[in-house]
Design a protein that fits this description.
Elements (H helix, E strand, L loop, with lengths): L37 H19 L2 H11 L3 H6 L1 H7 L12 H16 L1 H28 L16 H14 L2 H21 L3 H16 L1 H20 L3
Helix pairs in contact: 1-5, 5-6, 5-7, 6-7, 6-9, 7-8, 7-9, 8-9
Length: 239
């Protein structure tokens, strides 16, 4: 058989792993599995357990635990290394929230393209940067007298910042036909919430996290290209 010349691609364009000949689509790959996406699967299991706790534990105990996990300014000043990861163990609305399906789809899609370690890194980076940016702004506003001292203890927890960063990262791993609608839909939703001005600090945090995911496109695309090269080499060895 004649050799096929590889086509040149731009360094900025994401490269999709070509499917094996004759392989049918597998819709179940959209959801996490213990072997295929161990980070997403394990994290989903942890969120399920914490959601059961918030549903069935006494309300006073739940409030105490959530308050201890809150990334408010007072906690961030005293023990940031504890509350930053702890605040990402709780999901608003529990496992019955429609938001959970979106979380699973996004994290699974990112992990299948970049691996579990990079997916966890993207999630934590967005979660930490957006939290520090928003709560730091709250602290400065309190010092300037624009907000009351009670704002230093506002309840702040959840996974939405990390998920927003993963949405931004996922967009860079898709083709433009999927990337642009995803960014337009998700970014438009975040902008609409910010315009509504119901919770501006949190809404700004979502936009910061989304921008964080977009900023690391080059790193993730480099990893994706390496995976494609390894896959292509392995297939070339098959007689």
């Amino acid at each position: 058989m004649p050799a096929v010349e590889p086509t040149a691609t731009s360094a900025s364009d994401p490269v999709a792993v070509p499917p094996l000949p004759g392989r049918l689509p597998r819709p179940w790959r959209l959801l996490p599995t213990p072997t295929g996406t161990p980070f997403t699967f394990g994290y989903a299991a942890v969120l399920a357990l914490t959601s059961l706790f918030t549903t069935y534990a006494p309300a006073s105990l739940v409030h105490t635990v959530l308050q201890a996990s809150s990334t408010d300014v007072a906690h961030l000043v005293r023990m940031p290394e504890l509350v930053l990861p702890a605040s990402a163990l709780w999901i608003a609305g529990g496992v019955v929230s429609p938001y959970v399906l979106c979380v699973l789809l996004v994290l699974t899609a990112v992990e299948r393209r970049t691996g579990g370690a990079r997916t966890a890194g993207v999630f934590l980076l967005g979660h930490v940067l957006a939290t520090l940016a928003t709560e730091g702004t709250v602290g400065l506003a309190v010092l300037a007298g624009r907000l009351p001292n009670s704002s230093l203890h506002r309840l702040d927890y959840g996974i939405s910042f990390g998920v927003a960063a993963c949405v931004g990262a996922l967009a860079g791993l898709l083709t433009p036909w999927f990337r642009l609608p995803l960014l337009a839909l998700f970014g438009g939703m975040l902008a609409a919430r910010l315009i509504a001005y119901a919770d501006p600090m949190t809404d700004w945090g979502h936009l910061i996290a989304l921008a964080t995911g977009i900023a690391i496109w080059p790193l993730l695309r480099r990893r994706q290209r390496s995976a494609v090269t390894a896959t292509t080499t392995a297939r070339a060895r098959v007689p």
